[in-house]
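Order emerges. As here.
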Amino acid sequence: MFSRPAFFLFLSLLLPLQTPRDSIQLHHEKAEALRSARDLKGAETEYKVILGEAYRKLARVRSAQTNYAAAVTALEAALIYRPASDDLLIDLGIAYFHAQQYEKALSPLITATLQSPEILGLITCSGRPPLCWVISRRPQPNSRKR
């Protein structure tokens, strides 16, 4: 008969087999397959996605460490590789705000809104310097435009 600890140990051994794959790993595998197939342009595109994602993850670490100047630097580098990313633009605006670079904080948020107006529910700015709050980053799944 199984005891409870043995059963939970068995289940915990299965957990690593069921974890979702990291996007960097997936893009790396795709880039390597494209490179092997001699599709160098496609491989380069995938490697750029990897760099953009890596810089974004670095920015999140820096933000968690409250090193917002370093987070801004990492996000600016990420935008080189993924210039049309609304999420990166929003993260950059928020990082500028936390780094007390208020005059720069609004620009990436406006750019993200102009690129995809549906992703932002509302940006409210008030005061001196303006305080900007991103109210909603994604539309609600059940909400429909009327």
In short: The chain is about 65% helix and 5% strand. Residues 122 and 135 are 5 Å apart (CA to CA). Residues 22-134 form a domain with the Serine Threonine Protein Phosphatase 5, Tetratricopeptide repeat fold (CATH 1.25.40.10). The first strand starts at residue 123 and ends at 126.
